Amino acid sequence: MASLRITIALASSYFVFAIMLNSVGTVILQAINSLDVSKTDASILEGFKDLSIAIMSFLVASFIPRIGYKIAMLCALLLVSALCLLVPSIAEFWVLKALFAAIGCSFAVVKISVYSIIGQLSDNANKHSSLLNTIEGVFMLGVLSGYWIFALFIDANNPQSNEWLNVYYMLAAIVLVTTFTVLTAPIKSPELHNQKQSQVDAFLDMLKLTYQPLVLIFVVSAFLYVLIEQGVGTWLPTFNNQVLKLPVDVSIQLASLFAAALALGRLVAGQVLRFISWFKMLLTCLITMGLLILLVLPLTHDVDGSQVKNIFDVPFAAYMLPLVGFFMAPIYPLLNSVMLSSLEKHKHAAMTGLIVVFSALGGTTGSIITGFVFDKFSGQHAFYLTLLPIVLLLVSVSAFKKATLVLENGLTRQAIKE
Q: Is the pTM of this model over 0.85?
């Protein structure tokens, strides 16, 4: 029962941050429509989110175990709820920047805590992978819900209206409910590996992890994956609206299919991985992603959805692009699980800090590059560009596989000697 209550607290925290983190694409579209912001300027909103995640993770990953995961998560949730209550009354682009910076800092704390607590609840690699995929699946359900929650507050007949900002009152209430679930969950304080170790030494130990070949290859892979996911996910609502000419509310609702595909893909992957190796799955997913992009993007030329009234009337091509998310879905949690399972549990917080840092940098890079190419060329050009990091990810994943084999062989030899 205690484990279930903790899992619910972790899942609910991930759910609410999924809504807010991945609303950046919707907020970018609405900032362009209602706050008179250019695409290039709007793209930096991703930076306020992801760079704050990176900086916060870098600074506090080794410190969080010292103050306790529960206290850290409660502080993060309360900060976000306070900012959500301020946004509608100010209704300017700068306050959205402040909000996403706060969301980024808070999510860094929550993700490090969640990943570390999962390590406490799991006693083998299979359980760790199962629980992590479940939590990440809940995250994608939060992303899916977020598109529809925001769409409820957008007036399709008056896209320039600021009334959509009232959604943040509802989000503040959801965050406060989540805060209560964390407060009442029996989350244990972590056991420190070295009680006498200073904060500086703990920070240096986190940096030393990057000297390991397996970790270095992993962070490159995480960077490339998030570059792809955020590049597509953040700009998909704008692609639907400005390339496919769909109404704003339908564009946002349709983008939710991307989140749904990600959620479904992770749930299916959890079952398929019982029969095939993680490496074969990664290769299959990456190759299929590339083929889908090459096949689907040509179908989006000369599409005019301006007369569409609801999501059920959109052109066929508009349904196809979000399906890339189904094959994208297993990659990130699978890489994370393989990496964390190869480390001692007391290193999980520090490793998660590195995961969050490089994921955030990848997300910012992907969004800014996609936004720039979208603005200067076209939406099709911007999405074709994702083929380059897909090819690079194929190379890095292959190197990651070789590094895990080297580690496994080393551990086997050590066990034989002992």
A: no
